[in-house]
Amino acid sequence: VYSPGVTDEFTIRTRRAARESRIRIEPGGLARAGEFARRLSGARRVAVVGDAAVARRYAPTLLRSLSRAGFECERIDVPQGERAKQPAHLVRLWSGFAAAGLGRADLVVAVGGGVTGDLAGFAAATWMRGVDWIGVPTTLLAQVDSSIGGKTAIDLPAGKNLAGAYHPPVGVLVDPETLRTLPDRQRRAGLAEVVKTGMAVDAALFAWLEREAGSVAAGETGALAVAIARSLKAKARIVQRDERDSGPRTALNFGHTLGHALEAARSYRGPLHGEAVAVGMRTAAALSVRCAGLSPNARERLDALLDRFRLPRRMPPTPVARLFACMERDKKADAHGVRWVLTPRVGHASVPRLIPRRLVRAALLEAGARG
Amino acid sequence: VYSPGVTDEFTIRTRRAARESRIRIEPGGLARAGEFARRLSGARRVAVVGDAAVARRYAPTLLRSLSRAGFECERIDVPQGERAKQPAHLVRLWSGFAAAGLGRADLVVAVGGGVTGDLAGFAAATWMRGVDWIGVPTTLLAQVDSSIGGKTAIDLPAGKNLAGAYHPPVGVLVDPETLRTLPDRQRRAGLAEVVKTGMAVDAALFAWLEREAGSVAAGETGALAVAIARSLKAKARIVQRDERDSGPRTALNFGHTLGHALEAARSYRGPLHGEAVAVGMRTAAALSVRCAGLSPNARERLDALLDRFRLPRRMPPTPVARLFACMERDKKADAHGVRWVLTPRVGHASVPRLIPRRLVRAALLEAGARG
Question: Which residues does chain B have within 8 Å of residue A157's beta carbon, measured at their own beta carbons?
Fold first, then answer.
């Protein structure tokens, strides 16, 4: 089904921004980033933005390749973790671009996890009213999820991702070998988004994951490369039809009604995003059996696959009332009920539906919430 | 030719953003802003952003009309003058939007001069990845120039307008009666941009200005309404063809090579923008006679019209070297020469052309620069 070391490349076209994103999945591709960037950009200067730890590991390889391709490079480090998404770091990036002499036709390269892409992508979206950028995601979550779709953002004290822009990268370079140094827990959490894509929009991907769960769970580079490529292509098909979060794209929010609420209710210091989404998917599947005609057998397949990746079955004890409050703040809940993306069958999601609060409450309690 | 009190309305369509801007010029229109906004937006909440002085004068009328149209309004004041375009005030606006509970389908209304539109428009462009906004420009410069085209931006220590977005307003409401309280000098400076539009792209507008110079210079509301409407329509024709600053839109930079350099060389504490552009246009016309075949008679017509509006003939004494340095920083000049938009005849501009430095130097000295 997959051959290790294989390179895959395809294009995502977005209607709204009249832009193309070229996606390349290449084990070892980091060392050839310069050629990839040169095909996509006539820039003279490149600002390479990375979080401190990632940049220390990968920036030298990246800068060498970019320099060989004729780019004048400037490296700009940002802090690790979500705090990099504060407005002050956006302003610092803009100042860095100014100091680097980055012009309208120049390029930003973001290397790191989703946080770095969100921040550097937003800085690129707004520098001189928009310059091109290339994403080089180095976590599985960023490689399969946040690296495409064009959403960039920073956080404000009032909430996450409140300020941002739709600004798809001209290119995304995924090097699955960067996952070798990714902590096991983070890799498993990233797999939750692959499972989500299969369950919500791609039955064949779901079946492939069931077959290859062993090598995927073991973190074999070739297997991960295929999982990433299939996941990105499925996401691309959706995003191309619906660049904003309105129509078909809502399918990709499967598991996220509870996932987001759980993260927020634990002040983002609880489960990892993928872990919270895993609990969210299990709960959405339970509600799907009850309200959308999902077969109990299909629900069990989802649970079994998540188990293979050692993703949590239950949430840490969290008050139901706090979860409801977070869903309300997220505009997912009101007096009438809570909006959930349900799956009538594997590979198919419905548009978000209002589920009565009492059914949601029961499902949350079943998932480990406290009454 | 014009009837005082007449209302004019038209639509600008921009290719890139697949967006329409509805432009309405209506004396006294401020008191009917709510109806205009309601036609363009289904928002529940509106954040009304104005600079302190302008907001004090106009916000009550505006808020009353918006409330009558069923909007829940929140007023957010920003400081007067260019310093409002600092990153800290962008962040303050975002926080204000959060406090006002402004959602994706809600609306920002910016009331004031170009600075307020630039700042509030950029905040709207980036709030939740883009919400609609309506501009209510209250200076002549903003009414004829910065209110359309979709450019929004803030300043950084490294330079003006370095961070921003293309985000056209869904509507622009121009109430020429707001100009009654505008200082005479600011009104005359605003007329420089009207003259520019005539000279660069609309010979009929230029001829109209020559005929009606008396009532325009006197600030008669009806005359100004017509000048604004004709100027905006001419600009709209250009912007629709070229949303970024590449092709035909460069014509609108007539007078701005020197205009921008002069403002920067005097650290933005010298001539007003329109005054600097007036000197810039006179110099560009002199170069156009020399290099682009403009007739000496046409140059005299431009000078005479600018004289009617008491716009300056010469710049304050400014070192030629400093002007060249500013043009270089603005990417208008290099070792080979300086890029100018010239006018072969009234109403027609050429694409920017490289003019030899010695010719530019002579023209600058003639315009009052110091050797």
Answer: 95, 98
